[in-house]
Amino acid sequence: MERTATAIWNGPAKEGSGTLSTQSHTLDNTQYSYKSRFESGTGTNPEELIAAAHAGCFTMKLCFVLGAANFTVTSLETTCTITLDNGAITSSKLVVKGNVAGISPEDFQKCAADAKANCPVSKVLNTNISLEIQG
Questions:
Q1: How far apart, in whole angstroms, are the C-alpha atoms of residue 24 and residue 79?
Q2: H/E run at residue 73
Q3: What does each C-alpha distance from 70 to 30, 52, 110 come to in angstroms?
Q4: Rounded distance, CA 45 to CA 48, Å?
Q5: How far lies 103's CA from each of 12, 99, 125, in Å?
Q6: What would the pLDDT profile of 7-54 be if each residue is shown by its tens digit?
Q7: C-alpha–C-alpha distance, residues 112 and 104, integer Å
Q8: Could you give the 3-state DSSP secondary structure of residue 10?
Q9: Each residue of 75-105: pLDDT tens digit?
Q10: Which helix (DSSP H) or strand (DSSP E) does residue 46 occupy?
Q11: Rounded CA gap, 47 and 132, in Å?
């Protein structure tokens, strides 16, 4: 399986702007710029997209891990925070809460740790990944 995305940029780094589009058209000429990345401008940015990818990948992997351990998932919610510091992504923080029938906190922690270590996005990120479970 392959997925594609396209970035188009026009102008100098700080004054220019660009668009991002994905194969699925979920992003379709979505704006991004220096201001949306480093300030509070309109549009998205690579770090926000990485955070969405990591949260989504981890959550789906956790659902698979819980199912394989014979637990029934009612709902999972994961927030991912990507930190960009001095031109490098220095961390990805996953915060998850779940409604899973009959699971102990220890089993949930074990399954979440498995998902963190083995979701494809975790595997591709070359950074510190932390995990917090919320009740």
A1: 23
A2: strand 72-85
A3: 40, 27, 14
A4: 5
A5: 53, 9, 29
A6: 999 999 999 999 999 999 999 999 999 999 999 999 999 999 999 999
A7: 12
A8: strand
A9: 999 999 999 999 899 999 999 999 999 999 9
A10: helix 46-68
A11: 20
Domains, the chain, with CATH or none: 5-38 (no CATH), 46-134 (3.30.300.20)
In the beta sheet, which residues pair with residue 50?
A: none
Q: Please report the pLDDT score of residue 24 as a whole number.
A: 97
- Report pTM: 0.94
Length of the chain: 135
Of the candidates 109, 108, 106, which has an alpha carbon nearest to the alpha carbon of residue 73? Answer: 108
Paired tokens of 52: 């969405």
